[in-house]
Write a structure and sequence with these properties.
515 residues; 2-enoyl-CoA Hydratase, Chain A, domain 1; seven-stranded mixed β-sheet; 21 helices; 17 strands
């Protein structure tokens, strides 16, 4: 064979992975191969492979007699919608995708290149874990990857798609990355599997119940997106990337947008969106839909901690991050899960120069022994810390309730928000009118001929004197009280003037967020 024939043979061998039988087995499970996933993710013809001919170094257990070019992971770079990315795709057809020393080196190499060149990195995970035959070398390989995940955090966006098993120590690499996507029924994540759980706790549980996409998208919050199949998962990766800059020194992407003037940006339907009864819920997503560019909202953690909404959107073509209380779920209160969910998202947006819009309707923090004993103080402080630390443009719109400490936490003027608007329906106070009236006017109510009637009277008095948005506006805590229909126009102007905002934090190694 001449050198050209040898190269062609080597290329063909590398691209076969574990062989036709294993590729067929992968397809029968409803899963794509490592290379098929890359082909679906990247722009056609853009993939450049790195480390195609790498093989393992293990001579034990007869593995020197069986090697595969590439050693179970496909690595390289290409473009997604014309923008550069680095990618690694684990190949389950080779030793079950188990990680070896050389496998880890391939991943580490592109992670280093990703940081050096300021380009996002995407991991397509489908692995049975550490390669047992290599012992400590494979464990060292995982640690090398974890270390680089941590170094890359906040430098370049890191996205992880779980498209098969991801168990044991392997879960900690995706856990450090910015966003995790899982595929329903074919992927799972857990530190210890069903057999170990059965042995230790005597619980009977399936892999899907223990660590499937549904479990992690609703119960644990480990995954940010649960996708019906791999094609949808890969499309979601592309959608996510479209809102993010390439690295921490770039600005978020911006689409062309030409405003047709103030009248064109008015949204009269917002004037009737808040129910007259202050106790009646409404959907904050509906409010959001009238404010942002049409069909631009990409919700994150949709099924987890549903009393708060987070996600990406566009406003006048600009990429922005959304944090909003959801009155339709637990009246929009802040609890442990909502606080952590919000804090994590705020910190991501701040890391990558994505401005923040906060839509506020919050009656306070959720009371109860469960919340207090599980650390609502510490967890609530995470959201407070995240907003305080954020230096990106930050704008808040109070649509209805803004009570107690939750008013402070939800991007108030006092913790560094740039612009704060309130609708005419806003209620800003230490606590709700009924509870406040019962305390402030307790004696008058008790001595009244009709205590119930007197309580209602005092509730109204409290609302007019203390809970009105104009009281906060008089002190400069609210920049403007606006009609709801004006919101989109006001936000367009606010984010435009804040575009070149410069803010710096005190010099320090790093803060000590209350973890």
């Amino acid at each position: 064979m001449n050198k050209f024939e040898i190269l062609a043979q080597k290329n063909h061998e590398a691209e076969q992975g574990g062989g036709e039988k294993r590729i067929d087995a992968q397809h029968k499970k409803g899963k794509l191969t490592a290379r098929e996933r890359i082909a679906l993710l990247l722009d056609e013809g853009s993939f450049e492979e790195i480390g195609k001919f790498v093989t393992h170094r293990c001579k034990d257990f007869g593995l020197d007699k069986e090697y595969y070019l590439g050693d179970g992971v496909v690595t390289g770079y290409g473009t997604v919608n014309g923008r550069a990315v680095y990618v690694f795709s684990q190949d389950f057809t080779v030793f079950g995708g188990a990680l070896s020393e050389t496998y880890a080196e391939k991943i580490c190499k592109i992670m280093d290149l990703s940081m050096k060149n300021g380009v996002p990195i995407i991991g397509l995970n489908d692995s049975g874990g550490a390669r047992i035959q290599e012992g400590v070398q494979s464990l060292a390989g995982y640690a090398d990857i974890f270390y680089r995940n941590t170094l890359a955090s906040g430098v370049v966006p890191q996205l992880s798609a779980i498209m098969g098993p991801c168990a044991g120590g392997a879960v900690y690499s995706p856990a450090i990355t910015d966003f995790i996507l899982m595929v329903e029924n074919t992927s799972y994540m857990f530190v210890t599997g069903p057999k170990v759980v059965k042995t230790v706790t005597n619980e009977e549980v399936t892999s899907e119940e223990l660590g499937g996409a549904s479990t992690h998208s609703t119960k644990s919050g480990v995954t940010h997106f649960s996708c019906a199949n791999e094609a949808i998962c890969i499309q979601k990766l592309k959608d996510l990337l479209s809102y993010m800059p390439q690295n921490c020194e770039d600005d978020a992407p911006r689409l062309p947008y030409t405003s047709e003037g103030k009248n064109a940006e008015m949204r009269p339907s917002l004037n009737t969106i808040i129910p007259e009864n202050a106790q009646q819920p409404y959907d904050m997503r509906e409010v959001l839909g009238h404010i942002i560019d049409e069909n631009s909202f990409l919700e994150v953690h949709e099924n987890y901690a549903t009393n708060i909404i987070v996600g990406f959107a566009r406003l006048g073509g600009r990429s922005i991050g959304i944090v909003g209380n959801q009155p339709n779920s637990l009246a929009g209160v802040l609890d442990i899960h909502a606080s952590v969910k919000g804090a994590r998202f705020v910190r991501f947006c701040d890391s990558f120069n994505i401005p923040l819009l906060v839509l506020e309707d919050v009656p306070g923090f959720l009371p109860g022994t469960d919340q207090e004993w599980n650390g609502i103080i510490t967890h609530g402080a995470k959201l407070l810390y995240a907003f305080c630390e954020a230096t990106v443009p930050r704008v808040t719109v109070i649509t209805r309730k803004a009570y107690g400490g939750a008013y402070d936490v939800m991007n108030s003027k006092h913790i560094g928000a740039d612009m704060n608007y309130a609708w005419t329906s806003a209620e800003i106070a230490v606590m709700g009118a009924k509870g406040a009236a019962e305390i402030i006017f307790k004696k008058e109510i008790e001595e009244a001929e009709n205590p119930a009637e007197k309580l209602k009277e005092k509730e109204q008095e409290y609302m007019q004197k203390f809970a009105t948005p104009y009281r906060a506006a008089q002190r400069g805590y609210i920049d403007e009280v606006i009609m709801p229909e004006e919101t989109r126009y006001k936000l367009l102007k606010a984010f435009e003037i804040l575009e070149n905002k410069v803010a710096t934090l005190p010099k320090k190694k790093h803060g000590n967020i209350p973890l």
